[in-house]
Amino acid sequence: TSARVTLDRDFTIGDVPRRLFGSFVEHMGRCVYTGIYEPGHPTANESGFRTDVLDLVREMGPTVVRYPGGNFVSGYNWEDGVGPVEKRPRRLDGAWHTLETNEFGLHEFMDWSRQANVEVMQAINLGTRGVDAARELVEYANHPGGTYLSDLRRENGAEEPFDIKLWCLGNELDGPWQIGHKTPTEYGRLAKEAAKAMRYVDPTIELVAVGSSNSGMPTFGEWEHTVLTHVYDEVDYISLHAYYQEHDDDASSFLASALDMDHFIESVISTADAVRARGRHKKHINLSFDEWNVWYQRGKDTEDQEHRVKESGWREHPRLIEDEYTMTDAVVVGTFLNSLLRHGDRVHIANQAQLVNVIAPIRSEENGPAWRQAIFWPFARMAAVAKGRILRPAVASDRVETARYGDADIVDVSATWDEENSRVALFLANRSLDDAAGVEVALRGFRAERIVRAEILEAPDGADRHVSNTADAERVRLQELSGVATSETGITLTLPALSWAVVEVD
Ligand code: AHR
Predict the structure, then answer these.
(1) Do strands 411-418 and 490-495 pair parallel, antiparallel, or not at all (unpaired)?
(2) Neighbours of 469 (CB within 10 A)
């Protein structure tokens, strides 16, 4: 198998939006409680945050973290999570059939985000609540002082405003499962009025309108069109969510899932631009892919799990969707990141869902260890290395035929040019289950004098594509990629079967 990649210094599509490397913390399962927050844990700091988890988060390097949901936010009262902890109400969270203690809320998340060095992306409840709660939360969070709500924040310990710039106008309100599910017209009108009132309080905020929960929704397309027709002037972004999994042992199709992500992104861009044309608008609406990942929604198993959760009554932080990721999943995640980066001219925000324990790159056990899942690596390296300009690679790769997504390039690529440090970075996946791929990279307008980094993620000797990491064994980890050669005109390298690689030259 072989592929030829051409990178030209003049073929760029824009700057790398650093918010592309976002993540998501929802009050769901064990993401917050016993994930990022566990006051009794041996590594907990004075804020009750697990420092073993914090260290892994910093290593992984998300730039922005969406909070507090997810389905959870559509039934959440933000006021429950502020003020003296002992006075906070215990509530039933209907979305995940969970007992929410509210021990962790907005102030705790702001504190955690500072320690994790991430920007906050705050979602508001447009399921059970509306315009009033939305504008009040902006006032509480962002107004300096001298009003009832901003002074309440100060009394609650935060003298300075939180200054949250990025806000989601609800979550998945197109989904019948969502608390407060709406028609596109109902949502479009509500989002417009909420946006207006929030901006009256703080005109500097950026707003994300809810798009489709996935591209298979019966209302997909119609939803975006109607919603954007209502809110075009008031918002900056429209959201996309997508989760993928392997079906029927068809790994080839699964490995080509990013083709569906490409198609989804391009469809939403077209729809947003059609509304722009029709409404004679000047600005563009950009995309916020604020939930994406591999998630094994096992149908019957999921129903059984939901049943068990309900049978076992209302519990605090039950174990929910703690998927264990394999080498195959890691390659697929690498191709999702490539798809997002290649569309970085319009996808300005993306959040892998979620950060800890719940379909997450980081796992932790209560009173126990924390560890990196296989999917941790492509994210961590791309977040660290993808800087500067996004290059538009010309790729001529051997192809693989897949049942679900048609023909796909076997070698999948994205690339960046960090002019400041004169560095070119390539992120490559080999989708072939059996064959190594020889890759020739032609560089035009760059010189590759030195290999700064060449790392490979592949199944270790003796393991198959289902290999995963556990608390005791980190079997899937980056290794040095040997055999990378540079010349005046380019780079040559070999990708082992089913692998993901990062190569950086200057
Ligand atoms: O990330 C898990 C759930 O998936 C989120 O709560 C919801 O928004 C989506 O359906």
Answers:
(1) unpaired
(2) 23
pLDDT score for 380: 98
Instruction: Please name the residue whose Cα sits nearest to atom 7 of ligand 1.
Output: 70
Residues with CB under 6 A from ligand 1: 26, 28, 69-71, 171-172, 213, 291, 353-354
List pLDDT tens digits, range 372-402: 999 999 999 999 999 999 999 999 999 999 9
pLDDT of residue 300: 52
Residue 303 has pLDDT above 70, yes or no: no
Provide the pLDDT confidence category of residue 65 given band limits of 50, 70 and 90. very high
Concatenated DSSP letters of 236-259:
SEEEEEEEE---TT-HHHHHTHHH
- The boundaries of the domain holding residue 68 are 17-385
Question: How far, in Å, is the centroid of ligand 1 from the Cα of 26?
Answer: 8
Backbone angles phi, psi at 251, to 5 degrees: -65, -35
Count the domains in the chain.
2
Question: CA end-to-end span of the chain, whole Å?
Answer: 27
Distance CA 104, CA 91 (A): 13
CA torsion 279-282-283-286 (nearest 10°) is: 50
Distance 200 CA to ligand 1 centre (A): 30
Kindly state the tokens that stand for 210: 């809810």
306 belongs to a structural domain: yes
Is 377 in the same domain as 410?
Answer: no
User: How far is 218 from 362, CA to CA, in rounded Å?
Assistant: 33
Residue 2 lies in a domain: no
Helices of type H across 208-256: 222-231, 251-255
Query: What is the value of ipTM here, to two decimals?
Result: 0.99
Phi-psi region of 89 (alpha: psi -120 to 50; beta: other; left: phi over 0): beta
CA atoms within 13 Å, Cβ hemisphere of 506: 9
